[in-house]
Amino acid sequence: MTTASTPTQGTSKARVGVQRFGTFLSGMIMPNIPALIAWGIFTAFFIDVGWTPNADLATIVGPFIHYLLPLIIAYTGGNIVYGVRGGVVATIGTMGAIAGSDLLVANFNAALPEGDAPLGQVHMFIGAMIMAPLAAYTMKWLDSLWEGKIKAGFEMLVNMFSAGIWGFVMAIIGFYPIAWLVNGIMQALGNAVGWLVETNLLPLTSILIEPAKVFFLNNAINHGVLTPLGIAESADTGQGSILFLLEANPGPGVGLLLAFTFFGIGAARASAPGAAVIQFFGGIHEVYFPYALMKPMLILALIAGGMTGVTTNMLLGGALRAPAAPGSIIAVVAQVANNSYVAVLLSVVLAATVTFLISWIILRASRKRDLEAMAATDDAFGAAITQTEAAKGKSSDALAGLRGGAATQADGGIEPATMTEKQIKNIVFACDAGMGSSAMGASVLRNKIKKAGIEDVTVVNKAIAALDPSADLVITQNQLTDRARQKTPDAVHVSVDNFMNSPRYDEVVDLVRSQHEDRS
């Protein structure tokens, strides 16, 4: 039922902490994905092995990745922590890290014996992600020391010089310890990835990646770890990187959703086809996470599908030249490197097929038990519909329509008046990055409220980290509700399993409508 949700007993603080950290990492990368896409387009067209080589325009590629991308990532991260002031200081510090890294590389190459391969540039993506919070938080702390103690008329002078001086200090820190640290980290990670590729063990990364995705760490993994490594590899080799496909391959997710489409039961089966379209073409992977969480054994199917996709790309040379964001098949095809379309598309198809087959086995093995469990709950109507279809030997549009109604009844409504006395005027859908699943959910609810004739209620989507006290009601997927509640403890919090078509939306609309009727 839709209520002002209470804290979940036994919620893992570690999980919430990891999610929050991952959100911060992805929050620095996600807003800058358009810049990464632009860099990928320049690379695709103008480098010497591009579609239309152009030596003049190709000169943009190097500075773009070496300077622009790390600096805007640093600015974004600093801005998250401490607004424009934090962003500026973080950018200054990151420029020091870039220069320090270049000096270290130059000194290393100068000492190499003649004939040895020189070390390539280290692009400071991880350096920016370290420097941004360090510079912004320390600037914020320094400002707090003299807050309220500056004489009138001197505020601008103190603000400008304090930020400039601290930016200078952070640039020195970036030039020496940060540059040294990040060069070492990138060297170690690059060697680790190289070892995994050489020993044909890269598919084993799916054992970590696929379960982590289901627990909403997908953006942290993709944009916090794999994207920096993939960009470095792509820039060094000019041949793209397989790392961009480890998390973004839409095959496992669509395979799982297709299995629910044909072999699921109840509301999960009814909603799976729409979810498959959104996941595969829209690139919003979060829509399939609830399906896996309702039957954790299905994570094994996702792992197997992920490993199949990675293996296919390893054997056939599939790679992307830049991140595919969002993880849509359209974005994946647009970023294919080296004309490896057959390898990449085959990796998607095979990953989906393997996931589908294993999911089918798991769903069929537990079907009888699942039907009994569904019949024992409030979704008895949904169970009856499914049993009717089974007896009939085929489905029908009429029964499918009834199942949609059953899904709404199954989650059960309550009288809106018992939900909260808080006046609802600002509804916020919040997800990890504030761009994918929450945008979809906000669009669905916005249309419902418009059709209900309600005009003075706003529905927006945000990242959880961007929530503020202006939110009257916050809707999140249930795995993320605890984090949202920490940001907005005074708001009404509504947990949903699926942003696409949750019956919770109708209850929220009923609540808002009843409040309007009471006022009138």
From TrEMBL:
Keyword terms, alphabetized: Cell membrane, Membrane, Phosphoprotein, Phosphotransferase system, Sugar transport, Transferase, Transmembrane, Transmembrane helix, Transport
Domain of life: Bacteria
Transmembrane segments: 21-45, 57-76, 88-110, 122-142, 163-182, 254-278, 298-320, 340-363
Residue ranges occupied by any PTS EIIB type-2 domain in the UniProt entry: 425-520
Catalytic activity: D-mannitol(out) + N(pros)-phospho-L-histidyl-[protein] = D-mannitol 1-phosphate(in) + L-histidyl-[protein]
CDD domains recorded: PTS_IIB_mannitol
Membrane-related topology note: Multi-pass membrane protein
EC number of the protein: 2.7.1.197
Domain PTS EIIC type-2, residue spans: 21-360
Gene3D superfamilies cross-referenced by the UniProt entry: 3.40.50.2300
The keyword Transmembrane belongs to this UniProt entry's keyword annotation: yes
Database matches in PROSITE patterns: PTS_EIIB_TYPE_2 (PS51099), PTS_EIIC_TYPE_2 (PS51104)
Residue ranges that the Swiss-Prot or TrEMBL entry lists as coiled coil: none
Keyword Transmembrane helix appears in the UniProt entry: yes
Function: The phosphoenolpyruvate-dependent sugar phosphotransferase system (sugar PTS), a major carbohydrate active transport system, catalyzes the phosphorylation of incoming sugar substrates concomitantly with their translocation across the cell membrane. The enzyme II CmtAB PTS system is involved in D-mannitol transport.
Alphabetized PANTHER family for the sequence: MANNITOL PERMEASE IIC COMPONENT, PTS SYSTEM MANNITOL-SPECIFIC EIICBA COMPONENT
Protein's name in the database: PTS system mannitol-specific EIICB component
Naturally occurring in which organism (per UniProt): Microbacterium jejuense
Lineage: Bacteria, Bacillati, Actinomycetota, Actinomycetes, Micrococcales
